[in-house]
Amino acid sequence: MNNLALYITAVLVWGSTWLVINYQLGVVAPGVSVVYRYAIAASLLFAWAALRGLRLRFGWHAHVRFLLLGLLLFSFNYIAAYSAQQYITSALNAVAFSTMMWMNVINARLFFGTRIEPRLWLGAVLGMAGIVTLFWPQISVISLSDTVLLGACLSLGGAMLASLGNMVSKRAQEEGLPIIQSNAWGMLYGTAITALAAWMKGSAFNFEATFSYVASLLYLAVFGSVVAFGAYLKLVGRIGPHQAGYAVVMFPVVAVVLSILFEGLALESHIVAGVGLVLAGNLVILGFRKRGPALRHWLRQQHHYWFDRKRLAAPGSVNLAGCIDEVSLHRS
Predict the structure, then answer these.
(1) C-alpha distances in angstroms, 324 versus 59, 199, 298, 317?
(2) What is the pTM of this model?
């Protein structure tokens, strides 16, 4: 799967989980639902690895990496994000967690010496401006209080943990650790840690045997965990967390679009402006401008064909599919 396909997969799946998570809330404590989610996801990955004959035994050094993945990506960041939602709105939580994009840029520089191009900063600014615009009606009515400050700090803490988890995944891939087995072990460790935290908090390990809860749980486990994390972390290894991290800004956009389609959310001017800014930042981050000359040439040819009623010249013509395919996140 090429980089563009990996990126689209992660964005669409994780963006849809915002809607699906609503069906998880109610009877079962959020932390316990996370335990169920990653227990299922880890079991599926271990089963898949066993069926394919993939190596599952690793040394202690590899298990240190797996434990860090479990702590940072599959446990503590979720605990922080869910805890933050008790004190702040989901809109403010989305804005705060989206700062992971900036954290990835900075951490990639600190841990890997990654050169940060000016377009990354520009894209990041556009993305954050878009997220703030998207949720401005909810953010503008928030008053700064101790509980809001606590919630924002928890959300930012969760974003930092997730960003550090991205760095661990990139290092693990550089050391040759495979994605599937790394995620399987990481999710297993994350499940155990989250279960321990839920138990210490006094949460009941009950279960809601309804179609909506079970179906949403399976969707989150299979697609939201196995598929999306596999695609995203593969992308982190290929193009680096500083570029892959922009996917975090795209998740709320997908969630808002789905809310408009399925929940009757009104399409207002701030939504259009916010989505436009995020998409503009997305194009800047992904280096779309590098294909500008080829795309303009193709558009001129199309105009010549459709409006002048002449055929396209075969020699030297630009293939649109090739052009778009090359507008991938990085040259693999």
Answers:
(1) 42, 49, 11, 14
(2) 0.77
